């Protein structure tokens, strides 16, 4: 038999959140210059599928040169962005980061380090791609 990967299940990928969390995540995604061009439905699906990921102080959330597997929204704590040893910036609260490697399928262009303990909301690359595809299919069926 052919080993077809199981169909993506949007229902399985959903993670419960309260409405205030959803609103904060939605605003963070809509502030992002790349993601704000998406359909409102796509943004809504992304918010539904994001899950909490916590990082210890001193750990790396993203490492320069690695493939990108997640899009993140910073919910709590302090993150700094480095290229090599050089500090580029810190990431404001409720900001989306990590989307470029996902959108353009390239490796990470910088490292992101937790300066304090950090809470993020994360979305897996596969789920993101499935959400993009799913909406395209739904559109085709409408017309």
Structural write-up:
The protein has 143 residues and is an alpha+beta fold. The chain has a single domain (18-142), classed as Jelly Rolls, CATH 2.60.120.10. It has five helices and eight strands. It has helices at 10-13, 19-31, 40-49, 99-103, 125-142; strands at 51-55, 60-62, 70-76, 79-83, 86-91, 96-97, 111-114, 118-124. It has a four-stranded antiparallel β-sheet with strand order 1-8-3-6. Strands 2-7-4-5 form a four-stranded antiparallel β-sheet, with no helix packed on it. Helix 2 (19-31) crosses helix 3 and helix 3 runs antiparallel to helix 5 (125-142). The radius of gyration is 16 Å and the shape is globular. The mean pLDDT is 92.
Instruction: Tell me the total number of β-strands.
Output: 8
Please tell me the total number of domains: 1
Q: At the first level of CATH, what is the class?
A: Mainly Beta
Structural class: alpha+beta
Element-level helix/strand string = HHHEEEEEEHEEH
Task: Round the mean pLDDT to the nearest integer and report it.
Answer: 92
Shape: globular
CATH architecture, by name, is Sandwich
Please count the helical segments: 5
What does the largest sheet look like?
4 strands, antiparallel
Question: In brief, what are we looking at here?
Answer:
With 143 residues, the chain is an alpha+beta fold.
